[in-house]
Every structure is written in structure tokens, then in C-alpha cells.
Amino acid sequence: MNGINLYPFTLSLPKHLTKDALMTLQIRFRMMAMANNNNNNKTVLKPPLQALTAAALILPGLLQTPVHAADEDNVDFQYSHYQEGKRDIYGMVYDYGSKSLGDQKLPQNLNPIEVDSIHGSGRFTLTDRIKFAFNYTQDTWAGATPIGTAPVIAGVNKPIGSFAQATQVFSVTGASPIIGNSAGLAPFFTNKNHSNFYQYNYDPAKGAYVPGALNNRLTHVLSSASPETRKQGDVKMTYEWDEAALDIGGGISTENDYESRFVNLGGQLDFNQKQTSLNWGLSYTNSDTFATLDPDALAFMRTDEYDNSYFGFLDTDGDDAIAREIFFKPRVDAGQVYTSFDENGQVTSKMLRGNREDWGGQLGLTQVINKNTLLSLNIGYTRSTGYLANPYKVVFGHTLAFFPGQEFASPSSFPYLEIRPDERNLFNWHLGYDQYIEPLDAGLHFDYSFAHDDWGINAHTFEADWVQPLGMGWTVTPRIRYYSQSSADFYTTGIFNVNDVFFDSNGNFGSKLLEDFPKHYSSDQRLSGFGTLSGGVTVSKQFTKGVSLETGFEYYAHQGALKLGGGGEADFADFDYWVANAALKVNLGALNTGGRSHEGHGEHHHHSDAPAGIMFDHVLPKAGDFMVGYRYLRSEQSGDMHLGSNPVSRDGVNAAGCDGEECAVTPDNMTMNMHMLDFMVAPTDWLTLMLMPQWMDMDMNMTPNPNFIGIGGHGGHGAHDHETGGIGDTGLYALFKVVDQPHHHLTLSLGGTAPTGDVDIPLRKTATNPVYNQPIHYGMQLGSGTWDFKPAITYTGNQDKFGWGAQATATIRLEDRNNSGFSFGDIFQGSIWGGYEWTNWLATTVRGVYTSQGTIRGQYYPATISDPVTLKPIPFVPQHIGPFDFPT
Prior knowledge:
This protein is 2% helix and 54% strand. β9 and β10 form a beta hairpin.
């Protein structure tokens, strides 16, 4: 990320930090609302239409037709959590003698997909005609998701371990996305039109495998993913006339394997005395995919259609020396796989690269029917071209050869990267109806949307909500939504290549192709036919004029049987999920924001002149005051590792940095981003209470040790990284005004943090790490996992335009162990600073900091793996290790 845009600040960050660099940037943006006790309980009367449209915006994240009801300056912050339920997976279970015990529901310990998201937005008036708006969204994904669909009896979901007794089955440590006879999995039998599948059983009398029981069941194949973070920012400038407005904007969305850039242009025209509004918009998006394919899957996953190169071996100089030449032969125009090889010609990695473009247009009409009713109609069109597939989704392909007189055949089965068309034309229509119910002072909203594309998908969405004010600033909004879609034309649960084998009169072998793989195919469940039904509620509370807090919850049922008209996906694809969110909304126009007073520095009014890295430096001026603040912190670490004060080479770290073992990886750099909200309220003149929730994400880049050989022959080939993100620990503090003189102030803070941040984030389950609960590196967990006491004492002084101060803080762990078996060391920090105020809006400070941190106490509880003989759990010895994995 080369730049961070946070109004009213713009920061430019260097692409690469120099060695030995440690950079910390903080931004603090604070808004103060002085509560007026005489106005807090007053009811503000609005025109019915304004109340209606304001109610339409109450649901966090709800996209509404553009109207002028929300044109006041505002800042919003929102957090949401998405959580899927665990999916049922099935697989074949065999006894020690390879006798099938049939398909069974398998215990699977992979966590389902969950997403933590934060969203911040703001709208600000620059002049009477010009307004500026920004949005920032960041979400972190983690968990297991289906990569494809296959017959249960193909053995794709295979219990991992060994048998100790002939009748004993072993448990699953996770679904394995492996299929193919070369991987040692039991195949199955099917007929020529592959309408029926038969179990693969051994017949001792024939001394061969023969078709067994009929079994046409399908199952998902799950694969876990390491956490990864997506960040998106966009800005918009608006110029307004009396009867019209013009918007221009753009933004960027980045992930570790995807980047998207977009621009948009839009406008609004009001006529019929502003009872009718015409909205239009144009957009363009250009996106790049650069996805590294799963290293564990390279041995059996087929990427033929995308492969950009292959090796030809030629004798170039006549002395039998073999020279390697590369020939390019792309078969899929949109998206190509680039393969890397080691010095022995072995495949070390594959990366899929693709580009896509999206052009969109939208036209909408909003009509005021009467003082209580609003009707809106929108139509849109999007044309997408280029690589439109998902690089992590596969389709299981089965090749069958039938010999003369043979009724059944056993396929050779492998996963193939999905192939979607490189063009998509999408049309959508939206109808909205909003009704203000005067007797109940409530709003009813109904929306219907229909979408159709040339992939064969038709989608219907019905949703309705009721916005009901309850008085005292409370509003409750129940909501219901139904969605249904048909499947894409190329959606499939498996592809087949069927051949008839024959011998001519001379006994020569030949074959006739009866059926081939289709041109396009995908088993992505999101392209299947299904329906979802959901219900939820949002509760809003306005605390002071202009400041409100919202929280909501919605639960969804995803089932093939819920599709309109039936015929959706079978029940193996059914699952549930839920979304919870909380939002802080600040209407800047409604706040009594009096910035800092500069009528005299000697007046008895304390404000903060501390550097951005200092907290707990002041209390609110008087009882009843309320403040909302936002902080952003970015920390980057890189450079040499040290033993004491001496730098250590990478070879030295590999040899001696892992507690007597050879390291598999060494760190290159680590970045941490933290977003924090401050909620401050003053019950008395001398006491201020503070609540500080925070969101954080971390990214560590590592270099593998090329000489390290572990499980599965893992060696070092190319840099890789780990990401984590989500809610951090939550701070709760009480700030006391000890000394409050005109030029000298002393503040005492007592409080600490609650362990709301995760400390059990695991590494992804791989061949190198074949367990599902091996924790990620200590420094990449999101919290401490312990209740922590964090006292602080802060002195600040000022004279004329000069300011100075000092602070001492500590972090004392109140528990010896967290739920993962360790606790971080105690921390002491001392700071001293001085500054000069150049104008009433700009000051410069210089700060010196000393920090001391104790060692980690305890260590992670060991992950376990089944003993191959006794089946009892034994500690797993991690292979993917670096210096950051050892508390010492």
C-alpha cells in the first residue's frame, strides 16, 4: 500500500523500508460533542418524507437509491462478522482388509468460513457547492470452503491416519482435497452414461475389484485457507447545482492475490419541484489475479487448459547433452498458469495470472407519490470480459474407457481448474417502495430485484423491513429477505470423458470418443441453483444529538430446496450462516463542535497537545461531556535479526535461531495496522470513563530455508507470507484529573484490556503441517488472551505556543496463562516530548520513547496427531518453524 487516505490527512508511505527500519505512524481524528441536558430529551419533528428517507438509511450497509435526505456531513464506523455453520461432509470408510464399510458422515475439525469486516465512511462539505466523501473497507477471511463437488464413493474426503484393528475406523483431522488413483485413493465404477455410481469392492473369488452397491451421493470437498485481508478505499467529489448534481470518484481494492482499480461517474437531476429525481451512473473496473496454486495440490491437480508453458528436451549440439527449451501454448485466452521449476526440472510452484474488465451503467428514477410515499426504479447493465473464474475452485473430471462387452468401468479421476466463459453480460432491475406510516411514526420498505445474465442465471430478491421508533432515541428494525437463483449453464458436479475401446480385424487397438469434457465447467456452489431465506433485526440508539449507535443480527438458511420452482442443488450443499454488525454514526452538522478555544492559553480549559502516539493524556472538561475519537496506527518492522546488539546473518538464524533445531523459515518484515475508536464520557468534572475497541491486521513475510527438508520433502522455494486480522483486545479505563492548573496538568489513568482478541488462530493445514490446530506464530495473534492492567500517569504543560509533557505507562499481565497456554511479558514505557504550536490547527512535537518488554511465559499447548499404531493422540512436532515460534 503506497498511500493511505484518511480525510483530512494524506500520508505517503514508501514502498520498501530500508534495512533496520522501524516505522510507526499514527493518525488521531477526534470529534467532541458537548451534551446539552436541556435538549437531550426533546423530540425533533421532521417532515414525514424526511423521516421516511432517514429511516431507510438506518440499516448498516443498506444500499439505497440516492436521495437528498442524508446530505448532511457525517462520519460512520461499522464492524460486522460473518460466520458460516459447519458443513456436513461424507466419505468412504474401509476396514483393514479394504472391505468397504460404506459412506459415512465424517467428523471434520476444519473451521468454516468466517469474515471480520470494518467499514469507515465520511461526507464533508468543502464549499456551498462541493462535497467530498470517502469509504474504507477492510475484511479478513479465514476457514474452510468447498473447492469442488465429487461422488462420495470417489474417496475425496478420506480419513487420515492408520488402522490398528480390522474393525476400527480412525477419525478425520480435516477434509483432504485429494482425488486421483495416483494418490492411492479407491476409485469407483460407473456405466457409460455415468448415471449410476457403484462402490469399488474386492471380490476374493475373482481376485479382482468389482462394482458393489449403488451409491449416487455427492459431497463437497473442503480445503482450508490461511487468513487473508482485503482492503478497499474509494473517494468521491460531488458538485451540486440547485436542481442537479455531478459525482466523480474512484478507488482500489487489494488482496495478496488480487487487485482491482475502479472509476465512476454519476449524477442526479431533480425536476417537478424536486418530486422526481433521475439518477445515472457509469463505471469502469480493471482487475488483476495473481494466485499461487496450492503447493500440496500440484502433484495431482490438472492445469492443462491454462498452462502457459511446457518443457521440450532437445539435443542442441549433437553431443547427447540435453538442453531444455520452453514452448508457449496457452489454451485458455483469459488466464494462464505460469510454472516454476528447480534445477532438476521439478515443479516448485504454479501461479495463475489473469485480467478482467468490467463496464457498467445504471439509470434510476425516484418519484415522490405523496407526502408519505416514495417509489424508485433502477435498471443496470454490466459487461465483464477476461478472466472471470475462481483460481481456487476445481471440477472433478473422470476419464472412462469401456472395453468390448464391458458394462462398467473404473474412471481415472483428477481435479481440473474450473473454466468459465471469458464474457458475461448482466442485466438487473430494482423496484423500491417506501411508505411512512403516520399513526405509528414508522417506515415500511419493500424492495424487489431481478437479475439476468447470459450465463443462464436468473436471480430474484425480495426484502422488506419495518423501521419503528420507540422513543427516548431508540429505534428497532425487523427485516426479512428471500433470494433465489437458477444455476449457470456450465455448472456441473462432475465432467466425464468417455471412450469405447475396440480391436480391429488385425487385433490393433483403437478407441472411439463418446463424450468429451465440455468447453466451460464449474462446480462452484455459488453458481448452482439455490435459495436463501433470512430474518434479522437492527436496533439503534441515539445517545446525544448527532451521535447514534446501531447493532444488528441476521440469520440465513441456504438450501437448494428453497429455489423458486424447485430443482435446486441437493441437500449435501445446504448450510446456514449469520451476520452480526455494529455501527457508530456521527452527524457532524448536528454536533455542537466547538474546536479548541484560543481566547487565551491561560484560561482554565485543558486540551491535548500530546503526540499522536500518546493516550490517556487528558480528561473531558466538565460533567456531561461526550467525545468520540478515531486512531490509526501502522507499524512496520524489517532488517537484520539480532542476538543481543549484534546482527545475525540469515544462515546464522537458520542454524541457531530455533532452539536447537534448524529453522524452516526466517522473517523478512512484518506490518501491523490498527484502527481504534475512543468513546469518552465524563460523569463528573474530575472523572472521565473511556471505552476503546480496536481492529487490527498483521502481515509477515518470510523466506524459506532452501536446505531445510521436512515432512513431504518441504524445502525453500520463494518467499511467502501469513496474514491475520480481526478484533483486538478492548480497553476500559478511568481517567482522573489529579492536577488541573492553567499551565500544568496531571492525569492518572487506571484500567486495562479485556481479552477479546483471538489467541488461537491456527496455521493452514497442509502436507507440511498436517494438523488442524497448530497455532500461528506468537506475534501474529490478535490479542494477549489475558486480562491486563494498564496504569498510566501523564504530565502536560504549556506556555504561550510551547507545550511539553512526560508519561509513564505499564502493561501488567494479570494471568499466568491464556487459553492457548502462554502469556506475553509485562511492558514498561516512558515518553517525554516537547512541541510548538505554529497556528491554531498545526503543531509540531518531538518525542523520545523507551520501552522494555519481558519474555513470553509458558508456551502453546502442543497440537496432536494420531499414533499410526495405537491411534492415541501424540504431540505433533511442528515443521514450519522460525525464531518467532519459540518463547525463549
